[in-house]
Amino acid sequence: MASASPTILLLRQLRRRPVVLAAAAVLGIILAVALLSPWIVPYDPMKMDILNRLKPPVGGHWFGTDEFGRDVLSRVMQGTRLSLLVGFLVVILATALGAVLGLLGGYIRALDGALMRFTDALMAFPDILLAIAFMAALGPSLFNVVLALGVVYTPRVARVVRAATLVLRELPFVEAATALGATTPRIVLRHVLPNLLSPMIVQGTFIFAYAILTEAALSFLGVGVPPTTPTWGNMIAGAQQYFRQADWLILFPGLAIVLTVLSLQMVGDGLRDALDPRLQKVT
Amino acid sequence: MPAMTPLLQVRGLEKRFPVRGGLLQRATAWVKAVDDVSFDVARGEVLGLVGESGSGKTTVGRSILRLIEPTGGSVKFGEVEVTGLSKVDLRAQRRRMQIVFQDPYASLNPRQRVRELIAEALVIHRIGSRSERRERVATLLEKVGLTADAMERFPHEFSGGQRQRIGIARALAAEPEFIVADEPVSALDVSVQAQVVNLLRDLQRELGLALLFIAHDLAVVRYISDRVAVMYLGRIMEMAPSSVLYARPRHPYTLALLSAAPVPDPDAERGRILLEGDVPSPINPPSGCVFRTRCRYATPACAEPSAREVREVEPGHFVSCILPAAPAA
Tell me, what CATH number does B184's domain have? Predict the structure, then answer.
């Protein structure tokens, strides 16, 4: 182990779990679709074609067409872009807020009680209920969905960061930094934060999955992204009246959600196991 | 070897930890980890501090550096009263006094390169330019027996002994006058221990460092120390120049400790003194002499408060025992 870097160890761990690798590959494809969707969509996702409405998935339209004759495949692809964007921004926001709260709680003991009760209060509400409350207050828009979900998932990060900080602050290398004359901000930024990276990445992967799921639910309930934007949740919501004749309207966006969330969860699991030092020592 | 004015003067050092209990987490009792400890360390002198685990030796080292806040007593470093320093002044003072840790794994930040690790003190105290620091790190690495190409590597790429060398280089970076070596070799393989102790001794002589060498291994302490202090239950039992302490130990506890050390001669007569019972709880230590509950020479007088007095039985040889003279082992 003397020469292997943490990255190589991580890859070695992942290689032992083919399911995780497969999930990562699926995630890679989904990500590529999201990035390239404006250039690779077969049809304009917004273009209506009344003559070809509710066509089953055969011929020119692989995923069929919706009630306005729009190409479902193109809309799912654009939805991928939006859903991943929301998920990614939520992860950034929740991780940043959660890291600040967690570090404050873990390092300034006087603040700890108040901060943790605050996160407890946030966590006491079901995710979706809290998100709906925020959306009702903020009004529907893509940006507000990110804001609401970011706040909803902040406590998860805050708890993990606080717990890890409490462990790290007692380690000898932190004491060594104190002995060298480092100020508390320096210790937090140079010694504690870099060592929080792996738990934060793992937590971020899970939040990514939850955020996509909750965003879809919000859109489905009509309190998320405005219905004119083709997100997965909006597509399923719009298909409610037609799914008896055209089940592909629900099937394909639904499959997209399942596939994305499932592969994110599996990658998250794999990362958590691979980054857990206790497991590393055993193998 | 001791100079005229000692570099470090520790007087009546005390550290009590609260034992919390009950509904309101109030302190229901106190653990006296360090109780009335006094000693001097001269410039360029090595003072060995020995004792069993739980004797408070590590707490003494940490309290001197105020990595733990002592609850009483005074620590004077040169002309500076360390216990009275403000946070800002204490940080500036830290250049002058450093520490080498026991665990060479947990004491190095796994996310820092060796160059950053060693240069940290220089960065904190704004010493030198970027290139000067780099040069200094290279010099330090060489001094501790590593090569300059270690600079860009991470701690996990090194063995325990090498890591401890990195830890020593880090402590030396800002040219301190005094270093607390807190069991610096007890986590290492025996074959590596000697190398690291030799390194510490060589550096100490070369740089004229004062060293507080904390250990539970009497042989290691004897080898490196000018003077040795023996601790038991938070108090110093005996302190003397090492040649004197090992040749003419006066305290029954020191005698017992020395008799427990292995002798590299299978035919040697082993007058081993077995200590009975456990170390008493530091929450409720024995009255008078704290060692009396396990001392084979204990008399009723040992329970009196006067039994705690420290006597100078010969120049530089301090003993906390009221017995006239302990019989030879």
Answer: 3.40.50.300
Residues of chain A with a CB closer than 8 angstroms to some CB in chain B: 1-3, 5-6, 171-173, 175-183, 186, 190-191, 194-195, 197
For residue B247, give how far its alpha carbon lies from the nearest alpha carbon of chain A (Å). Answer: 36
Please indicate whether, in this complex, the C-beta atoms of A172 and B109 are within 8 angstroms of each other.
no
Q: Give residue A4's pLDDT.
A: 56
Contacting residues of A for B67, CB less than 8 Å apart: 175, 178-179
| pLDDT band at residue B325 using 50, 70 and 90 as cut-offs | low
Report the domain count for chain B.
1
For chain A, which ranges sit under pLDDT 70? 1-6, 9, 276-283
> Taking the CA atoms of chain B, what radius of gyration do you get in angstroms?
21
Per DSSP, A74 falls in state: H
- Cα separation, B66 vs A40, in Å, equals 64
Q: Where are the alpha helices (DSSP H) in B225-266?
A: 242-247, 252-260
Percent of chain B with pLDDT over 90: 61
The answer as to whether B1 is a domain residue is: no
**What percent of chain B is modeled with pLDDT above 70?**
96
In chain A, the domains with their CATH numbers are 6-282 (1.10.3720.10)
B303: in domain: yes
Q: Check: CB of residue B203 under 8 Å from CB of residue B141.
A: no
Mean pLDDT over each residue of chain B, to the nearest integer: 89
- For B124, which of A175, A182, A194 is closest by C-beta distance? A182
Domain that holds residue B58: 8-319
Work out the angle at residue A102's Cα, subtended by the Cα atoms of residues A98 and A107, and round it to the nearest 5 degrees. 155
Question: Chain A: residue nearest B170 by CA?
Answer: A180
